[in-house]
Amino acid sequence: MVNTATQRFTFEEYLAYDDGTDNHYELVDGLLVLMNPPRIEHFLITKFLEQVLDSAIAQLSLPWLTFRETGVRTGYSKSRLTDLCVVTKDQTKELLGQSAVFQTAPRLIVEVVSPDAIARDYRYKRSEYAALEVPEYWIVDPLAAKVTILLWEEGLYEETVLVGDQAIASPTFPNLSLTVEQILAAGTVA
Predict the structure, then answer these.
(1) Are 144 and 116 in contact, with CB atoms under 8 Å apart?
(2) Under DSSP, is residue 57 helix (H, G, I), strand (E, B) or coil?
(3) Which domains does the chain have, with CATH numbers?
(4) SS3 151
């Protein structure tokens, strides 16, 4: 992650920003921060989880959608790019014809840790998602072979760290049958 300029942007300027490249940026305290391309393992895990969550949404007939690499406004001059988020169809309708940056809290956010994003995913995004009161936040960490589940309860995140064959317990998806091993194995190619 690299700060690209010293010029400060408003949130509205960030939404309209186009430098003519395929670069992805987060807005952090008004500054554009260039996001490095993730490793292939990161994409494989994210794709797997998107498919699992899409299936769970369909099974429960919920009016929800999953999106990869969408933005979430986390402050006055802050916007983060999520690896995966689950939002309502109503939230999605609000963005038709606009940049894909949600201004209300998703039901669930998943971040997959990359070597250059450890502090960002565990510390900065955690506090920013807590400020939004995101009900459920997963930190999938293939580097440490664990998944951290953060559930918003009474004004704080309650944290559960899972490893190996431990099952994910998700109040958002109570019928989910998924282990840490399955998630991490998705980051390999057989």
Answers:
(1) no
(2) helix
(3) 38-185 (3.90.1570.10)
(4) strand
Phi, psi of 73 (to 5 degrees): -70, 125
* Residue 77 DSSP one-character state: T
Please report where in the chains the tokens 């690299």 appear, as a residue: 2
Q: Beta strands 84-88 and 101-102: pairing type?
A: unpaired
- From 128, 120, 124, select the one nearest 35 (Cα to Cα): 120
**Count of positions (residues) in the chain:** 190
With a pLDDT cut of 90, the percent of the chain lying above it is 63
Phi, psi torsion values for 60, nearest 5 degrees? -90, -5
Query: Six-digit token pair at 23?
Result: 């670069």
37-75 pLDDT, tens digit per residue, is 778 899 999 999 999 999 999 999 999 999 999 999 988
